[in-house]
Amino acid sequence: MNPVQKADRIQRRRAILIILIASLGGFAVISLFVYYESAIHLWVVDHYEQLLGNLLMVYFVLQLLFLPVIVLAVYLMRLAKRIIKAERNPPPGYATVRDMFVLEGRRAVVQGKIMWGIAWLLLFSSLALPLYIVYVFDKLINVT
Asked: Which of 6, 45, 62, 64 has the most CB within a 10 Å radius?
């Protein structure tokens, strides 16, 4: 039977606070977008030629929307690297928000490598999707 690492109450409260703040921030951004949707649409229609001239700027603005996913991917990469190096999940000195079975050896390394792959998929998709949106935007504007 694997040993159990007990949860850290301080980390649990911290995680809940981070989730609440991030949720409120996301709600605020979505609400603002919905409120100003018609104004944004009119602005894009009126300035589409300027936007076509600055597709790189459009890409970076879209990239801001994917910034939380990029941060998550980097966090998962760092965590996976620590798991693989220590051959233990959760890594030594890592506080958990719930009680966890400790995996050691090959099982921990496999789990770390899976996490590493997922992190790369997240990072690639968060960089490629805005690029694809810009590409489609360019094609739609050039067709008409």
From this structure: 62
